[in-house]
Amino acid sequence: MPQLFTIDQLREEDAVELANVGVLTDRNRRSGTFLLRDVLPLCCYSSADGMELLSIDAALQRYDWLREKYFWKAVRPDLDEVTLQCHSESIPRGFFIRVRKNVKIAVPTQAGLFVAHSNVTQNVHNIVILEDDSELKLISGCLTLRGVSTGSHFAVSEMYLGRNAKLTNTMLHRWGPKVRVRPRSGTIVGAGGQYMSNYVSLQPAKSIESNALTWLNGSGASAKYLTIILGSDGATIDTGGEVYLNADDTSAELVHRGVCTGGHIFQKGLLVGNARCRAHVDCAGMVLDTKNSGFIESIPGLRGMHPEARMSHEASIGKIAPEQVEYLQARGMEEREAISMIIRGFLDTNIAGLGPELDARIAEIAELAGHGETR
Amino acid sequence: MKDLLEIKNLCVEVDGKELLHDINLAIPEGEIHTLLGPNGSGKTTLIMTVMGFTRYQVTRGRIFYDGQDITDLDLTARARLGIGVMQQRPPTIAGVKLHQVLAYLAAGDLQRNQKVQELLNQSQMSLLIDRDLNAGLSGGEIKRSELLQLLAHEPKFAMMDEPDSGVDLESLALIGKMINKLFAIESACTVKRKAGLIITHTGYILDNIDADKAHIMLAGRISCSGNPHLVLEIIKKHGYEGCVHCMP
Ligand SMILES: Nc1ncnc2c1ncn2[C@@H]1O[C@H](COP(=O)(O)OP(=O)(O)O)[C@@H](O)[C@H]1O
Ligand SMILES: [Mg+2]
Q1: What confidence tens digit (pLDDT) does each residue in B19-50 have?
Q2: Which of A255, A329, A359 is the mutation pick for testing B, counting most B CBs within 10 A?
Q3: A334 lies within 8 A of chain B by CB
Q4: Cβ atoms within 10 Å of B51's Cβ, excluding its own
Q5: Of A280, A327, B19, B86, whose CA is between 20 and 30 Å from A139?
Q6: Which domains does chain B show, CATH number per domain?
Q7: A327 contacts B90? CB cut-off 8 A
Q8: What pTM value is reported for the model?
Q9: How far apart are CA A115 and CA A122, in angstroms?
């Protein structure tokens, strides 16, 4: 594919915005980069030995086996309108990553998918293959650039983890207020493989509906989903998915954290225990402001299909207790500093490569909350 | 010495019910006073009101600190003026670690940072600092956690709510040591220490701390004041019931 440029040639103002979702121009801090601007791939390269990073169309041309064994094999094309639409693209847009057997990439690789113009429909298809005993940390930052409020982002992601492979997939989203976002993913994990998904919605779109399907097919495979939603007025965010625990000693954990400052947040997820396994769903919501009938709804789901499936869930929703805020104020903190610290604690996240981006947004929310319900 | 804290004709309501009635109290600079009294007499209410917690509504009277009327200041402002509190039952805050609050309090102050660090090293408290604030702590651990924060805060006026309740003797000695460190003499030539108000239900802490004056609170009123050891002796002999006939 044509190499248009490297990420350090990105326009300064775009680079700043991408940095807000974890996509960095510093080549030392990222082992590879893929950028998709509207429907056009801007750059695509890997600087790590043993890792290939190509645009999906180039990869399909290069490898026949990709189409035979992986393309549309973890996600069904006829699943819904989103997959149908992505499937109808004559040239698929997105990335292909393959990490070779035994290769462990310590420095994260990144993908920046951004909508630069109003009303653009971004249909994305990504494939990630981790061969046996390999490791990768992937950071995907998705956003609409400043001033872009309309558009849509439909994304299909297929991930394949071999034996003992380890993938950390961190997604940071920051969208314009009228954008529609529809991620669909299918992940197949082999024996001893570990899949970790961190999804953080910093600035929600008009509507986000995600549906992540995961099959833990090899014994000892595990999946952990952490979903952090910072909601806002007018946004509906519905995150869910299903994890099938199909082999002995598999484990799955779904952790939802939602902060409501208006808008609707649904925390969903279904764990299906088909073998001797352990599964846990943990949903927690913090309601700061319910303007225009905002709410958080938690629907943790468990389905036990095996006598030795050990499954549990917990869910709680509440506001910030004023005693907590005042306790910290008595230590000299301003009200909004106290609220920020409490929200940060509530989210309890230590996601690699994520810090200032989240803190900046929490500070904004705390500012709102300080003038709202908790007073 | 001039008064650091001065409370005049203070009446306080909680949830529409008057709990403190016409309190008058003055604590001069450099003095440590204790507040004794039976359960439910209003001791906690008094210090929470001085700190500025919003549940405690001042309906009458004024509070002065360092010559300034602070009755209408919020918690943050009072804390920044140098008023600090150790609560009896502090709230749990999930996910917020003690070390974060300590870091906030000692931020940019090398000396204070060092002091906190020394304390942590001395007294097996390093485990506490990575725990969620007040979550699942024992009585003694809560006191130590609160005191660590006060030491990092370094208030000019420190209030403590029953530092000696629900702790074993060993903890009590450590707590006494920490409190003395908190009030330590600021400069040798003036022999001036920091001021404070310590609530004690049992009076145990008076063995560890050299208090200047004791006040007895009964049913939302300060019924008498005097030398701490004499007051404690009388209470030990006659109980708080013995104080009732003194009430105005
Ligand atoms: N929220 C409340 N509403 C009504 N009464 C309260 C409330 N909190 C405390 N009280 C009452 O106020 C009185 C004083 O309480 P407190 O200051 O905690 O006493 P102390 O610290 O001396 O034990 C008690 O009778 C207590 O039951
Ligand atoms: Mg009390």
Answers
A1: 999 999 999 999 999 999 999 999 999 999 99
A2: A329
A3: yes
A4: 19
A5: A280
A6: 3-246 (3.40.50.300)
A7: yes
A8: 0.85
A9: 7
